[in-house]
Each structure stands twice: as C-alpha cells, then as structure tokens.
Amino acid sequence: MTSLPQISNSPSHWYRNLGREFSRAMVNNSELGSYIEPLVQHFKPYWSTNGHRAQVIELLDESPEVFSIILKPSPGWPGFHAGQFVEISVNQNGRRLSRCFSISSSPSTYEREGTIRLTVRIQEQGRVTPRLRQTLQAGDFIGLSMAKGEFILAAEPRPRLLIAGGSGITPFRSMLGQISQSAESHNTTLMYYSGQEGSHLFEQELKALSRANPHINVQLIATQEHGRFNAEHLADYCPGFASSDIYICGPTGMIQSAKRVCVESGASAEQIHFEYFGAAPIEHTAIEAAGFVAFNKSGQSVSSEGDQPKSILSLAEQSGLNPQSGCKMGLCGQCQCTKTSGVVYNTKTGLHSDTGRESIKLCISVPVGDVAVDL
C-alpha cells in the first residue's frame, strides 16, 4: 500500500504551497520570486531572490588574452578575504551560466572604493569567458555569490613565500595589496613564473609594489630563459623558505611539481597551501577498483575503468546525460547530487566517502566500485 505524504495545516505552509502552485501555473518554475525577479530588477537592479548582484563599472584589457572586470557589489555584500574567489552568473541565450574567478583586488580597496576586480583569462574554446569580454558593458548587472574559499593568509602574520604560475597571480595580487596596506613587516617573497620576459601580468605594478615596500621581494621569472620552478630557484630567491608559510597557485602540473620540490628541500606539508585553477588531479593510486555507475532516474549505467578514472560528471556526460554543472572544480555546487549507495573518492579532499546515501559533487567524485546516483 502506498503511504500518503504528511500534510501540514500551518498557515505558512499553506501560503507557500499556494505561491508555488500559482508560479507553476504561470511559468516552469516553482518559486514565485524567480518569476517576478526580472520585473522587479527593472526598477531595483540590485534586487535578487538568490544571492547578490553587482554592477559592471569598467572592463580593462591586461593583455590580448586577459582582461579585468571592475564590479560594484550590491549593498549588503559581506566582503572577502584576500585569496578568495566569487561565482558570477550571466544569462546567455536564455540560459544562466556561472563561473568562478579569484578576486584580484585587495579587501582594503573594497573597503575604500566599494569595488572588486576579477581578472579573467579568455579560454578560446570556453562557453563563458569569450562571451564575457564580447558582451559585458559598463552599467550591466550580473549575479554575484558571496566570497568563498580557504586559500587565504594565516591570521597570524609570518614570513611567506608565494609561488605563482600564469593566471595564478590573481589571488596573490589581492594578498600583496592587503599586505602592503597593513602595518606588518614580515618578509614576503613572490616567485612568479611566466613563459617569457614581458609576459607577466601586472609586471609594472608588482615592481612598483616591491620598490615601495622593502619587505616585499618580487621575482619575475621567465621559464623559457630560466626554466621552471626548481630547488636552485628556491634557495636563490627565498633562502628562508623553511620558516615561511608557502602558498602556490597556478596550473595543476606546476602546483604538483612545486609541492614536491618544497618538501624535498625541507619544507613540511603543513607549511604548504595551494589552490588549483581547474579540476584537482585524480591520484590513480587512490582509486582501488573499477565498477559501474548507475544513474537511477535516467535508467542509464556506465562502466568506470580503474586505470582511467573519471569523475561521475564526466561519466554522466559520456552516457549522454546533461547534468547541471558550473565550475567543474568542486566550488560552485551546481552539480551537487545524491549518491544512494557505493563509495566515491573526493579528488579535492583526497578522502573516500561512506557507503550510504549522501550529497556529493559530481565533478570531484570518482566512483570506487559500484555506485548509484539520483540522476
């Protein structure tokens, strides 16, 4: 016998259901606020039923492939710590798209001017970044999340080594701006790697920052001439690294190599903090077995190969499914889904899940054996 759902007689529950039914009758959306949102935003552009909004103040070209967006968040936006990122959302052909970007300006700039700066590298094959540069204009409004992320400076000031590669300079620009505005005088060394001389983002600004702040040492290193990060560079540019907090941001391969070199040179794992600009790598040794992933709602299933592990999001897309997703880095939460059984490996935390029902992010979850997902 099928059990009937329990019915609440409370007035708030009754009004809420009435609103949802009214909204469903008008549009394909159960939230009445989402239906009226565009109309209200015509008169109150900062208003949103889901998070915050921001106005585009200016767009700046940093290089042929990189540009910055200056945003003024809505009143009440709670601010951020240097090193954190935000998720912005825009409408494209009637579809809402979201991406995450580090904030490249400092919290002190936000406190002083009420603006934040996002620095974006245009991905030639990307769906969002080329469109952002082509379509955004000063005066536009876009969706803005609260600041997120744990790649931030330790609360207690200590000597620091910052290792950046390519666009990985963006959170460090924010950190250095904050450090230069503070009263602390601990030594901070930036080792910033880019392909060739003259290709470092914010080069003149970083040099000026170093000249004005003797405790900030900026080293701009061209890999074509001097090679990639190695133990000799570490000893030459930051001989005090063994007593420093070490922060690394850049491409995946660069982060893995820099972590290994730092540890082999005497740093402890506890000293090292890092942030991937993209999906975290899947450690093959952590994946114990192949299996099957069953997608409960669609009735699809797919095999998971032990020697070529993939995320459940990739496996779903391989099966012809099109689950909602955003950053594919485990940050935005758009691909969050319920696992009903089985074990998954989290590529972001390096931990295995329990076997039972729980919420997971598809983009950073790799199946270990047989797994079932409500998708």
Give the helix/strand layout:
Layout: H1 11-26, H2 32-43, E1 52-61, E2 66-73, E3 85-92, E4 95-102, H3 107-113, E5 116-121, H4 129-135, E6 141-144, E7 160-165, H5 169-181, E8 188-194, H6 203-212, E9 216-222, H7 223-226, H8 231-237, E10 245-250, H9 252-264, E11 272-276, E12 291-295, E13 300-304, H10 312-318, E14 336-346, E15 351-352, E16 358-361, E17 365-373
Parallel strand pairs: 7-8, 7-10, 8-9, 10-11, 12-17
Antiparallel strand pairs: 1-2, 1-6, 2-5, 3-4, 3-6, 12-13, 14-15, 14-16, 14-17
- Biggest β-sheet: count, sense, barrel? 6 strands, antiparallel
Mean pLDDT: 84
Shape: globular
Radius of gyration: 23 Å
- Total beta-strand segments: 17
The proportion of residues in beta strands is 25-35%
Number of helices: 10
The helix fraction, in percent, is 25-40%
Q: Distance between termini?
A: 26 Å
User: What is the structural class?
Assistant: alpha/beta
SSE pattern, N- to C-terminal: HHEEEEHEHEEHEHEHHEHEEEHEEEE
Summarize the structure.
By secondary structure, this protein is α/β, with parallel strands linked by helices. The protein has helices spanning 11-26, 32-43, 107-113, 129-135, 169-181, 203-212, 223-226, 231-237, 252-264, 312-318, and strands at residues 52-61, 66-73, 85-92, 95-102, 116-121, 141-144, 160-165, 188-194, 216-222, 245-250, 272-276, 291-295, 300-304, 336-346, 351-352, 358-361, 365-373.
